[in-house]
Write the structure tokens for this entry.
Amino acid sequence: MRVGEFLASYPGDGGRVFEWIELRRQGDVWMGQVTALGADGGVTHLRSRSGHADGFIAELGAPGAATAILDLRIIERGEGELVLSGRRVELGAGSANGAPAAFMAEYDSRVEIQTSPIHGHGVFARRDLAAGDVITVIRGEMTSVQTPHSARITDEVHCEPTGYLRYINHCCEANSVIDATDPARPLLRADRAIAAGEEINFDYIENEGEIVGGFACNCGAATHHI
């Protein structure tokens, strides 16, 4: 049985780590694979070693040679959203002495992560979206600091995203827009109709005005303003 794909994030030794988890369930056994969304793009297999009422404990890595342990709960948020929440413990040489790290993974029936022709990985629509539809809730740490990955929520507040916004690429002819009408629950909305399978993007310049660090635009638009 296919459960879904989750965007996972947790603190690592070199900063926040992001992974894409493809998870399925057969009876009481949870299994799947975990793809690193960093430079190496390595794939690790996952298999549960025990389950409980609302989640499971799983090993990452080859049988008998686990590299990490996940202890997770499954939370339903509604509107097709699921969350895996719990702890990740790294094992073996080079790990942080087995110290647990807070682990969070999100599933949203509206979007998925794929390799992007614009840059690295991107966020793609799972289904047709109409103009004005919510694409995803913007989640992450709210700070006063603008970074290369942050999004402006108000003039004083930026969000360092831990969810799907982290992987939404820029486009000079964007199909979505940040809606911060409620700064406590900012949203990404479709700015026009978006077809299933289409990459979702927003205009970084429109949101930020000035980009920290800068980058070469590869969005494919007829006219660029970066």
Remarks:
- The chain is about 0% helix and 55% strand.
- The radius of gyration is 18 Å.
- Residues 127 and 196 are 4 Å apart (CA to CA).
- The first helix runs from residue 204 to 208.
